[in-house]
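User: Show me a protein chain along with its predicted structure.
Assistant: Here is one chain, sequence first, then structure tokens.
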Amino acid sequence: MKKNSQHKEKKLIMELGGQKYARIPVQTHVINFGEDLISIIKKYVTPEFKNDDCIAISEKVISVCQKNVRHISTVKVGWLARFIVKGVKKYPNDVGFSRAEKMQVAVDISGKTRMIFAIILGAVGKIFGIRGIFWIVAGKRVSEIDGFNPDAMDMYKEHAVLPPANPVKICQEIEDKLHFPSVIIDGNNINVKILGKSNKVLLNKKELRLILLDNPMGQNDELTPFVIIRKSDKIEL
């Protein structure tokens, strides 16, 4: 499996509550818009999957398969998006929402009125040391928008990847058709959010988030949008 420096910095084993879990990245081809997700998982995950495993899936690959994306050529940046990005926290290892084009997509989804309201309440929240209010008020899952990343693969440089539709339903469909308990995550170099999980995933959302908190996936040259989670006592040495 090809791994770049991103994976080298991450540990295979994560310990939680005295139990160790292996996070095993599964490499794929470059997945293009509109490909069949079930077929991809069947092809690449089946050879690696064992009883009692579950798979964590990047929301990005779900949206790509759903063609739930937007090309940068369709984005016309307005004054509000330019204003908002001036106050966005900048991260050295993640583009986040520092690009006005990406913020404009969020404005288009939430609407100007709601975004202005989010700015006002977000500013009030910061005065009292409460962060994250802006994204809560903006709503419509706009915090999950990805893409427009100059350091990513070409397809992600030019496309914003929108939040996947029906993540819980998708997880259950994967479990029903392939018998793989499944979790969909919104993961980056800053944080991880659990968007949905199927019925037979025994870990709760808090546990899953902690197990995947360093985001062991890779969707650039690593090509590993799937990670198998396995109890360490199930690993064959």
